[in-house]
Structure formats: structure tokens, C-alpha cells
Amino acid sequence: MPPRVTAHDNDDAAGSSELMERIVSLCKRRGFVFPSAEIYGGFRSTYDYGPLGVLMLRNVKNAWWRSMVQMHDNIVGLDAAILSSPRIWETSGHLAGFTDPLVDCRNCGERWRADQIEGTCPKCGSGDLTDARDFNLMFKTHAGPVEDEGAVAYLRPETAQGMFVNFLNVVQTTRKRPPFGIAQVGKSFRNEITPGNFVFRTREFEQMEMEYFVPPPDAATWFDRWVAERHRWYVDLGIPEAMLRLRPHDAEELSHYSVATTDIEFAFPWGWGELEGIANRTDFDLSAHAAATGERLEYFDQATGERYVPYVIEPAAGATRSMMAFLIAAYTEDVVDGEARVVLRLHPRIAPVHVAVLPLSRRDELKEVSGEVLSALQPSYQCDLDVTQSIGRRYRRQDEIGTPLCVTVDFDTLDDRAVTVRDRDTTAQVRVPIDGLADEIRSRLGF
Ligand code: GAP
Q1: Of 99, 155, 315, 437, which is least surrounded by CB within 10 A?
Q2: What pLDDT score does 12 carry?
């Protein structure tokens, strides 16, 4: 039996890299995450989300959207274009300042982020490095057929700006008044110098960001509330509190637009890493876009006759990065009935498959009743019908991908119209009439 590894007991370096290897291998083997363009030898730390990964990533984004938009009557959604006017990036400060310091090793030619190495090349050990120079992280392209300066466009490096430039559109169409928020989920692109640690840092990734517009005097209070609320989101979705910490930035670390930022960090196998940053962006963005365009990006309070530029509190999370944290926190190996198993103890809301339906044999009678069970559950739940190999093997396979519940259809089902429901975490089994199955599943999954 392999040594047992969980995300909770990996304080030594060998254990943590072994844990990562097992998770990366599980992701590949079971169809969560594939290296992109693998048949061409891969492509520069890009990844594709496979049949299970796409379900899980969607669940993470849906859980965020539900907690932000559905559960707050003063937060609305937006889906802005990835390509937009380059003037946005001039105004936001990204053209001038969204840079990392880059050094080259003169010995082996490798490039590094100057702030991530200590004077010697991590690849060849040489101390012969160039001086650091600023490298802009935005991907540059051309919109339209002419590749001249006038056609330059950038892939967005954050979703946030789309929300600032639509501030007036949203206020006018929704009649929201501060405090109110605009939420957006989507791809962002950064030409990272050193991508790595699987999907932790990639050049193409997904963000989940919300801009919360508040009266300036209330900004500090809202900042504290959003830090607490966002921390609770990860805990509610199953990340143990011991694997999370809050880290306020000190003054030198703050972005140019922020007067206060706190990161929510996760205990990755290699150390603490950021999952999300909550920032007080003040009126920096609205005022800058107003100055650049001449538009009045303000709120006019008709009741008081007051006109002001709201402050913005921004919880900015990574969808792909948090999916990875959820996988790491959930990964467990234990022993059931003397047999080792891998279990992803994922929260039911983010598990890729909610219910697996397992007919004991391929016989037609069981196929028919399994179809009936599926029709009852599929409108509400992501189901998987698995008919191959022994039932024990099938339970192991479902445990390994984090399926919270298995429903087994056996020959007794033909007589008693009941099925066996098996719980992933306890492995306990109960017999449930098909008529009451949907209610039973709902009460166990909690939705
Ligand atoms: N609008 C503010 C903003 O973009 P950020 O801290 O640069 O803030 C927010 O990004 C989140 O996006 C990070 O906490 C992280 O989860 C995710 N993220 C940033 N860069 C990433 C990358 N290269 N790969 C994966 N996720 C990334």
C-alpha cells in the first residue's frame, strides 16, 4: 500500500511534492485537467479542463455567483468583452505599471522574475545575471487586419476594468444606489514570466471579481465585512480553517490603486499562496476613467442632492486557482474494509458529479429501472451512469472523483422498487424507495 498522504500532514518538502504529484496525476487520469496541446508536447504552462474539470470549475464559479449575485439583492452581473479599447489600460495604469522585474541568466539564458530569485540562477546556479528591467505582463495583439500601432489591442489582465467602464450603464439601467456591486466571472490573461505549480499561476486563467461601490466614509467598514464574508465562503465550501489565513499587505506591497488590501491565502503543498485579494480601490478607477473620457462617473443622490464618486471595495478571486485549492483540501487517502482508497472529500456543491447511478448488472431489466432513476435525478443533479466492473471498483472510482452519493440498482429493486444509497465519506448504505429518492438526495446533498 502506498504511504498515506493528505493535504493536512504534508509539512516536509518531499511529502508535499509527492502530494502534488498524486493530485496532478489524478487530474490527468480522471479527466479534470490535461496539459494543453499534449500531443504536440504541451504549450507553455497552458491547461485544458477535461470532462470532470469543466463540471467542477463551473460549480466553483456557480457557487461564487450564487453567493454574490443571487444572495445579494444589490449585486448585479456583467460579462464585458475581453478585447476592448487600449485607452482603458492607459487610464488604469496597466500600460505603464503592470510590470514584473525580469532578469536573464547570461550563462544558461533562462529568464526569471528578479523578485523571486536570490542573486543566482535557480537553473544553473550562475550569479551572472543581467540588471532587472520592467516587463509588461499584458498580451498585445491587433484588432482587425492591419498590424499597425493604431490597431493595437490587449487581452484583459483583469476583469475589473470592464465593470468600472460600465458603471454608468449599470447605474442607469438598474437604478442601484451605493452600496451596490457589479460581479463578473471570466478569463484574464497575463504573460507571466514564471508560470508554474500546475494551475496556480498560468498565463490564461479565470477570475471571479466583484466591484462594490460605497459612499466613501463607509469604505473601511465594507472592506472588513467583505474580508470576513469571502473567508467564510471558502470555509463553507469545505476548506478547513487551518488551511486558510488572512494576510494584510504592508504599505510597500500595495498596488498603485489600493489603500488597503488583505489576501486570503491557502496552505498549498509548497507553502502559503494567494487565493483572493480584497482591496479598497478608493475612487481611483472611476476618477481616472472620468478624467480620461470627460464622463461624470459619479452617483447623484436625488434624496440629498449630493453628488459623489463612490469608493470601491473589490474582492478579486481566481476561479482556476481556487478549484485547485478545493482539490488539494479534499484529497485524502484512507482504508475501507482493508482496502486503500483515494477520496476527494469535496463539498457536494462543487463535486463534479453529484450522484452516480450504478446498476448491479448490465441486464435489460436493471437498465430500464436505472433509466427511470436517472430521469428522476438528472433535471436537478449532475449524474453519472457507470455500468462497468465490480460494484466495489465502481465505488472506488466515484470516491476518487468526489461523488458524494452512489445509487445502486440491484435485482431486489425489481421487487421492492427500492435502491441502495451509499455515502462517500462514511460509506454507510441505506435502502430508499425510488419514489422518495429525489427527496432523500436533496436532503443529503443540501440542495
Ligand atoms: N482586479 C484585481 C486583481 O486582478 P490580482 O490579485 O492580481 O487582483 C486576483 O488577481 C486573483 O486572480 C488572484 O488572487 C488569483 O487567485 C488570480 N490570479 C491572478 N493571477 C493569476 C495567474 N497568473 N494564474 C492563475 N490565477 C491568477
Answers
A1: 99
A2: 61
Q: Does residue 171 share a domain with residue 317?
A: yes
Residue labelled with grid coordinates 443622490 = 301
Q: Measure 216 CA to ligand 1 centroid, in angstroms.
A: 25
Cell of 20: 502534488
Cis amide prior to 179 (ω within 30 degrees): yes
Atom 6 of ligand 1, residue of closest alpha carbon: 277
Residue 402: give its domain's CATH number: 3.40.50.800
CA of 424 to the centre of ligand 1 (A): 33
**Phi and psi for 308 in degrees, rounded to 5?**
-155, 160
Last residue of a domain, one of 261, 292, 327: 327
CB 103 within 8 A of CB 117: yes
Q: Which residues line ligand 1 (CB under 6 A)?
A: 158, 160, 190, 192, 201-202, 205, 207, 209, 274-277, 314, 316-318, 320-321
Domain that holds residue 43: 4-83+156-327
**Whole-number pLDDT of residue 17:** 86
DSSP line for 410-429? -TTHHHH-EEEEEETTT--E
Given a cut of 90, is residue 3 above it in pLDDT? no
Residue 104's CB: how many other CB atoms inside 10 A? 17
CB of 435 closer than 8 Å to CB of 376: no
